[in-house]
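Researcher: Please translate sequence to structure tokens.
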Amino acid sequence: MILPRKRIASPAGAAADLILDAVGATTMDKGLTCLAPFGHLILYGRAGGAPEPLNLFRLFEKSLKVGGFVLYTVAAVPEVMRRGIEESLRLITEKKVRIVIGKTFPLAQAAEAHRFMESRQSVGKLVLVP
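Model: Translation complete:
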């Protein structure tokens, strides 16, 4: 997910202040290129595999930041998890965030839904209906 720039004009044209990268290997390098000066890339998944090791001196070119995120760290701190859930529900209620339902399966087809998810052809969330 690439969030558009809003603050600093980039000499290279359109650029992003923040990039949330769930893919890794095939997108992280491109993401760093798309960041504006002082931009931040957060790697939170590796659906495309682990990225190549990062040459930290590349960050100096535009004063970039790279971070990592994994949900189980948040889950280990109940207060942080609670605040995250409350904030997420608020954003959904205010229609600032939309949950994309990619496909719905009857509960009896849970194994098929799981195979579909593993095929990496799914987009959005899969829902099992009783």
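Researcher: Any highlights?
Model: The mean pLDDT is 88.
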